[in-house]
Amino acid sequence: MPDWIDQISGGDVRALARAATAIENHAPEAAGLLRQLRDRTGHAIIAGITGPPGAGKSTLVDALARAIRRERKTVGILAVDPTSRVSGGAILGDRIRMQDHHSDPGVFIRSLATRGASGGLARATADLARLLDGSGKDYVMIETVGVGQDEVEIASVADITVLVLVPGMGDDVQAIKAGIMEIADIFVINKADHPGADRVEHEIQAVLTLGPRPDGWIPPIIKTVATDSSGVDRVLEAIDGYATHRRNAKSQILNPKSGFSIDHLGVAVKSIEAALGIYEGQLGMQVALRETVAHEKVHVAMLPAGGPRIELLEPVEPDSVIGRFLARRGEGLHHVALRVPDLNAAIERLRAAGARLLNEPQTGAGGHRYVFVHPASTAGVLLELIQDT
Question: Chain centroid to CA 196: how far?
Answer without folding.
Answer: 31
